[in-house]
Write a structure and sequence with these properties.
Blueprint: E1 15-16, E2 23-24, H1 25-32, E3 39-40, E4 50-51, E5 56-57, H2 60-63, E6 75-78, H3 80-88, H4 91-101, E7 109-111, H5 119-127, E8 132-134, H6 139-154, E9 157-167, E10 170-176, H7 182-191, E11 195-206, E12 212-216, E13 223-226, E14 230-233, H8 234-238, E15 246-248, E16 251-257, E17 272-276, E18 279-288, H9 294-309, H10 314-327, H11 335-339
Parallel strand pairs: 1-17, 5-6, 6-7, 7-8, 10-16, 16-18
Antiparallel strand pairs: 2-4, 3-8, 9-10, 9-11, 11-12, 12-15, 13-14, 17-18
Helix pairs in contact: 7-9
Length: 340
């Protein structure tokens, strides 16, 4: 299930929460069958079990009888080491260890390098309804590709109504009420040489390194809706250099109508944050009114954010200079000269 960041009245929630639909064995098999050259060895077993961890496990210690820290809830990968060890066990040892192994609720087993497995292993897998696959890939390639795939599929996700642009390498998520000018701002930024990631609907995933990655709906990829003009294809008009398929979100910018009663940020000393999928992202609220060049302000916000990530904070540096100046006893009329 995916949730939206916009309320019915158009106001923006102070945080965006999502959910996870855990990957099933059947979906993994469907999407990776050709890429990993997977062959299902247990066709009569249901593939409805879910994979809840992106990490995989190689059960060499389990086959030797050590189960104190057996990560049974992960995809089990059997390489040459594990298979050769099984064949070297005595019939009694193998039966005892495999019976213990299959007593756990294992999602599935993947055998690397198209190796032959013991007949009693497959019989126990069928008995305990554990799907077993075989692949021609080497163990290391199998491990890396399955890990990356599961992490992507199981990443917490959410969809928001907004526009995502890449401005000077900074991923900026534009939010605001419908009709405030998000798409027009993004179009101006693209015309100025920046890149569009998504318009109208932005899909966001949070990965294990706490990175928030935004992308577009495949159906409307590279398209924008401009009121009074209609749907345009940014890639066709501006070229492939004006688009990208996904981008890390570094900042959230909320556009809202100028209200004189609102106390907008004047110094930049206080850093506001916007919560997306449990992650805090720097947040700016930009008031919109005729004559205000919002795209240029967004550009400066992107450059200023890059400076902050490099360790330089303009507002704090100015504040420090002012405090040092006042502490030296310089007259108020001389402050401007001291700052020059």
């Amino acid at each position: 299930m995916r949730s939206s960041a916009t309320k019915k009245n158009g106001d923006i929630d102070p945080s965006v929460k999502g959910s996870v639909d855990f990957l099933t064995i059947g979906r993994m098999y469907e999407l990776l069958r050709d890429r990993l050259k997977l062959k299902l060895l247990t066709p009569d077993i249901s593939l409805g079990r879910k994979i809840r961890s992106a990490e995989i496990h190689r059960p060499g210690l389990a086959f030797s009888g050590y189960y104190d820290y057996f990560a049974f809830d992960r995809v089990q990968i059997l390489g040459k080491t594990e298979i050769s060890f099984l064949f070297k066990l005595s019939p009694a040892q193998k039966k005892r260890n495999l019976k213990k192994f299959f007593s756990y609720k294992i999602p599935c087993i993947v055998v690397a390098k198209n190796q032959r497995i013991p007949d009693d292993f497959l019989a126990l897998a069928n008995e305990h309804k554990v799907p077993v696959f075989k692949s021609v890939l080497q163990t290391s390639k199998l491990v890396s590709q399955i890990t990356v795939f599961i992490e992507d599929e199981n990443a917490p996700r959410v969809s928001v109504h907004g526009t995502l642009v890449d401005v000077y390498g900074t991923g900026i998520l534009l939010l605001g009420k419908s009709g405030i000018g998000k798409s027009e701002c993004a179009l101006e930024l693209v015309e100025r040489g920046h890149r569009l990631v998504a318009d109208d609907v932005v899909y966001i995933k949070r990965y294990s390194n706490d990175e928030l990655l935004g992308s577009s709906n495949e159906a409307i990829l590279h398209h924008m809706e401009i009121r009074g003009l209609g749907i345009i294809n940014v890639r066709s008009i501006f070229g492939v250099g004006a688009i990208r398929n996904q981008k890390r979100i570094n900042m959230v910018v909320t556009l809202e109508k100028w209200g004189h009663q609102d106390d907008y940020e004047r110094t930049g000393l206080d850093i506001k944050h916007y919560e997306i999928l449990g992650q805090q992202v720097p947040h700016l609220i930009l008031p919109v009114r005729p004559g205000r060049n919002i795209p240029v302000i967004v550009e400066i916000a992107a450059l200023n954010d890059r400076l902050k990530r490099m360790g330089y904070h303009s507002a704090r540096d100015l504040n420090r200079k002012l405090i040092e100046t006042m502490n030296t006893g310089v007259l108020e009329t001389d402050i401007e000269a001291a700052m020059a």
